[in-house]
Design goal:
By secondary structure, the chain is mainly alpha-helical. The protein folds into two domains: 151 residues, no CATH class; 287 residues, no CATH class. The chain has 19 helices and no strands.
């Protein structure tokens, strides 16, 4: 069920109505059923696998927490974490083996490739295992509560990533219907739908044919499409996150922000903090810090830890040469950022640019967009050969097949997105927060709603991060 569909909106409305109509003691059970039903629409086997993962991590973590013998604690922890990661690796990366090893429920290796959501709920289950082993907090109050925190449908498929204990506590607080949460959630859903349907999908309709037949295009055709995808994937993924956060708000659950206008970052390191922020936070807590993090007086060890971190980032996106190259170029940009930090500060001061001047902000924005446009060369194409072709043919400064009209439309969509984002104050806020006049703000929301209806009649385009 696509988040950007009328079916999902009906599903959400029905769930909200039933949730606040039934008794408080039945709400979590109903929401668990709704979440499993939602996930089963992508494949019944998916829900069964999630249930198995949930049972393993819940009981292993429970016994790991309460075991008095340190040896038994480690054993339960090792069993729970190992099985969790084994299931994740098996079902996410088995496609690299070119044989059909599984016909269960008529599945093939190719079908296993599209097992959506497994990465994101595995983040929560792995974090739960580690946190309980370290006894950061007590086990969830019940299996029902934990299972719901893992499967909670607004953030099940692609985040934002939130700790299970945080979701459980909020859902167990038995909140009454809050109109403020509903208004906030509606605004965020509208903003997310606008970014997805009007901006991301419109750009996708122009650039997807190019990426589908990459060898027929050259020069500025390729550059514009890589640039367009850099904006498309942001509008697509941040749009999904806004819809997820807005949907959760209806149930009284506050999910963390996932994007904070990353292209307006001052440097590339800041970009990674502001892009898919919950993933970056998870990596820092469960991967980077355990590796040693930033090591004082040992820059080489720090760089090695960052290198391993980005290697994991590449492998998470997919076990392909392209994703490995993409992650290592991202690592290289981080290193360049660190090395040139003081040089850039001195240069900016020397030429007299204020830290928050329009000129400097524009330069930073263009630098971020161009860096991500370059990374797209290894992120978007389906093979290393296609990426190599783009590198070899992108330097021609003229268009071959892409029309000026299509290029102007891409520029227009980017301009509209950034103008609207200008009126957004914080990462978890809706657009037009800076507009104080009620009537003008209402008028802008009418424009957003009309645009969604106008552009919404086109064929659905799957969210980009569903593949991860």
């Amino acid at each position: 069920m696509n988040f950007a569909s009328i079916q999902y909106l009906f599903f959400l409305i029905i769930c909200v109505i039933i949730y606040y109509t039934i008794s408080k003691s039945s709400r979590n059970l109903f929401l668990l059923f709704a979440s499993y039903f939602f996930y089963s629409l992508f494949g019944f086997g998916f829900t069964l696998l999630m249930l198995i993962t949930t049972l393993i991590t819940y009981y292993c973590s429970y016994y790991s927490y309460y075991a008095n013998d340190i040896k038994k604690r480690k054993q339960f922890f090792a069993i729970g974490l190992s099985l969790d990661l084994l299931i994740f690796i098996l079902f996410k990366y088995i496609h690299i083996i070119d044989i059909d090893i599984m016909n269960w429920l008529n599945w093939s290796v190719q079908k296993l490739l599209v097992l959506i959501g497994i990465s994101f709920y595995t983040f929560k289950t792995v974090g739960y295992c580690i946190d309980l082993y370290k006894r950061k907090y007590e086990p969830d109050s019940s299996l029902l509560s934990y299972a719901l925190s893992v499967s909670f449908f607004p953030q099940l498929i692609a985040g934002p990533i939130e700790k299970s204990i945080s979701i459980s506590k909020q859902l167990n607080s038995n909140k009454i219907f809050n109109s403020s949460n509903a208004i906030y959630g509606t605004k965020l859903i509208l903003w997310g739908l606008f970014k997805k349907i009007v901006i991301a999908d419109s750009i996708a309709l122009i650039i997807n044919p190019v990426f589908s037949d990459i060898y027929s295009y050259k020069g500025l055709d390729l550059f514009v499409c890589c640039l367009g995808f850099a904006i498309q994937i942001y509008a697509d993924f941040s749009g999904y996150s806004d819809i997820a956060i807005g949907s959760a708000a209806f149930f009284g659950v506050k999910l963390p922000p996932n994007f904070n206008k990353p292209y307006f970052s001052k440097n590339y390191r800041e970009f990674w903090v502001r892009w898919h922020a919950t993933f970056s936070k998870w990596l820092k807590e469960y991967v980077f810090d355990p590796l040693g993090g930033v090591v004082k007086n040992n820059q080489l060890k720090t760089l090695f830890n960052i290198f391993l971190l980005f290697l994991i980032v590449g492998f998470w996106h997919g076990a392909t040469l392209n994703y490995m190259i993409y992650s290592q170029f991202a690592f290289l940009f981080i290193i360049i950022d660190i090395i040139t930090k003081d040089i850039r500060k001195r240069f900016i001061k020397k030429i007299g640019l204020a830290p928050k001047s329009i000129i400097l902000n524009t330069i930073n924005y263009l630098a971020m967009v161009l860096m991500i446009t370059f990374l797209v060369i290894y992120f978007r194409p389906q093979s290393f050969g296609e990426s190599t072709y783009i590198i070899d043919n992108i330097t021609s400064f003229h268009f071959h097949h892409l029309t000026i009209k299509k290029v102007l439309f891409i520029g227009l969509y980017i301009l509209v997105l950034e103008i609207f984002q200008y009126f957004q104050i914080n990462a978890n806020g809706h657009c037009f927060e800076k507009i104080n006049n009620f009537y003008l703000r209402a008028c802008m929301y009418c424009i957003v709603l009309f645009s969604i209806i106008l552009f919404g009649g086109r064929p659905e385009i799957t969210f980009q991060y569903f593949q991860f």
